[in-house]
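wait is this the right file?? whatever heres the structure
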């Protein structure tokens, strides 16, 4: 499988010393198809303001890469030799943010330009620390804080541009563009790799994965997003370094997972994770999802939908995404609990509780997101009932839209009846009289029956008397 990913073999990565800073190469942007005139005014303003104040400033990273590939950059980042304290006063609306990675956000309306100071690679400046990080770091001066496995805990050592390039992850992510001079600056043959459509880690990949295991996930994400091949040396250490993801704080894992799922290439990224052997242990429950035929169909449909939404310029909420990813487990547990005689709604709440608790040990889902997830799940049995009492309340529920999309997915993957989804579509579109008629029809109707029958068929005989007969008491939203 993994072999399939390698279509090009390049020189071994260890030949490129990790400390090598690379040779500066400049190429006119125009010859590469970049049109400085078409860059957003905000990014140009930030670069020019910094340059006029006597600093170096470049557009960097993903934006340069995407411009060169003819893709629309998601956002524009700027790199400079000015420190965050020097950057901030140059702009009317700017915020100093971050601790592990201090940067400045310059705000233009709703647009944010991220300005980061050139940083040095931890190589040669590291010191293992234990308890008292701060005083040790202060004493260490130009040093990075790393943990016992070599993971960098903070990354605020300022450096020169060549040092900044060396600490970026992939060669194609380490390109700088100066719109004033119209030059692309390249230290690590990023342009060559871009042309060859190859994702290559700068420096010694194994050491770079140890420094920041999140880079393992970034390989899967960028290979999917860009459709690039993974250079052999970059690919080879991945399988044996997957364990390192266990050291990553769960909040950071969450951030990177969201990026992976929300950038329009979720399906391909997840597929890459699986091929790279990284899905296990990341979202412990995803392991199960992907190994269960029914769960897989649902999750794949959800991710495919998400990608399509993003391609259409819409967004996908993290709550909806995670609700989808964990649904196969929640659904299974829900069924088990009902089989044990727990009433339907209580069983669902308990299943959600258990699954979220197990999940949070590895990947912290923020509370506001998990609250929404529970609501999306919690609305599912309520939508199935279509009762006179609650139908209207369901439609007015702040999570109705997401819950309805969720129901559509369940219908598409054969877990709920299509007719039920159609009923809710009609109900939303209907006026007051139409809604009354629909409720009446539902009370007699075949769809409700179909739902009940399907449920019964799936249930074990011992539980026949259980949850389905449960009245909707305590069902108010
Ligand atoms: P996208 O378009 O998906 O946002 P991006 O390249 O801008 O892609 P970001 O995660 O926004 O990706 O990171 C911006 C830049 O910062 C990268 O291009 C890379 O140079 C650098 N970078 C980000 N994360 C890391 C990391 N973990 N290790 C090294 N460099 C990183
Ligand atoms: Mg970016």
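ok assuming it is, sequence goes like this
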């Amino acid at each position: 499988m993994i072999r399939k990913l390698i279509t090009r073999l390049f020189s071994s990565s260890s030949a490129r010393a990790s400390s090598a800073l690379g040779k500066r190469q400049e190429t006119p942007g125009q010859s590469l198809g970049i049109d400085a005139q078409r860059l957003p005014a905000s990014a140009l303003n930030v670069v020019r303001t910094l340059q006029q104040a006597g600093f170096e400033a470049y557009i960097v990273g993903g934006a340069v890469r995407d411009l060169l590939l003819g893709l629309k950059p998601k956002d524009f980042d700027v790199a400079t030799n000015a420190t965050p304290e020097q950057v901030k006063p140059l702009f009317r609306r700017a915020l100093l943010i971050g601790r592990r990675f201090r940067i400045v956000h310059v705000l233009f309306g709703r647009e944010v330009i991220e300005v980061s100071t050139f940083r040095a690679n931890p190589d040669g400046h590291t010191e293992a620390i234990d308890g008292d990080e701060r005083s040790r770091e202060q004493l260490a001066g130009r040093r990075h804080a790393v943990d016992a496995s070599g993971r960098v805990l903070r990354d605020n050592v300022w450096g020169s541009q060549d040092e900044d390039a060396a600490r970026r992850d992939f060669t194609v992510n380490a390109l700088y563009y100066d719109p004033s001079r119209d030059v692309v600056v390249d230290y690590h043959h990023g342009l060559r790799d871009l042309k060859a459509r190859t994702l290559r880690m700068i420096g010694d990949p194994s050491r770079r994965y140890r420094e920041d295991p999140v880079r393992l996930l970034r390989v899967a994400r960028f290979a999917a997003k860009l459709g690039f091949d993974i250079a052999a040396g970059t690919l080879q250490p991945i399988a044996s370094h997957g364990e390192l993801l266990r050291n990553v704080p769960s909040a950071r894992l969450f951030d990177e997972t969201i990026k992976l799922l929300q950038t329009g290439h979720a399906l391909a990224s997840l597929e890459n994770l699986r091929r790279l052997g990284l899905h296990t242990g990341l979202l412990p429950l995803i392991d199960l999802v992907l190994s269960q035929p029914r769960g897989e169909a649902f999750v794949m449909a959800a991710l495919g939908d998400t990608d399509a939404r993003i391609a259409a310029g819409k967004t996908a909420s993290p709550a909806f995404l995670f609700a989808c990813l964990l649904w196969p487990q929640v659904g299974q547990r829900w069924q088990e609990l009902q089989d044990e005689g727990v009433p339907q709604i209580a069983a669902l709440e308990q299943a959600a509780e258990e699954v979220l608790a197990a999940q949070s040990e590895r990947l912290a889902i923020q509370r506001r997101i998990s609250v929404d997830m529970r609501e999306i799940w919690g609305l599912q049995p309520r939508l199935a009932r279509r009762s006179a009492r609650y139908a209207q309340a369901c439609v007015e529920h702040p999570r109705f839209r997401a819950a309805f999309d969720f129901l559509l997915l369940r219908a598409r993957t054969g877990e709920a009846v299509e007719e039920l989804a159609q009923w809710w579509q009609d109900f939303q579109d209907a006026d007051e009289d139409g809604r009354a008629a629909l409720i009446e029809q539902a009370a007699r109707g075949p769809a409700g029956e179909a739902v009940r029958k399907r449920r019964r068929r799936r249930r074990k005989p011992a539980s026949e008397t259980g949850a389905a007969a449960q009245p909707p008491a305590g069902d108010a939203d």
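The chain has a mean pLDDT of 82. so i think its the right one actually
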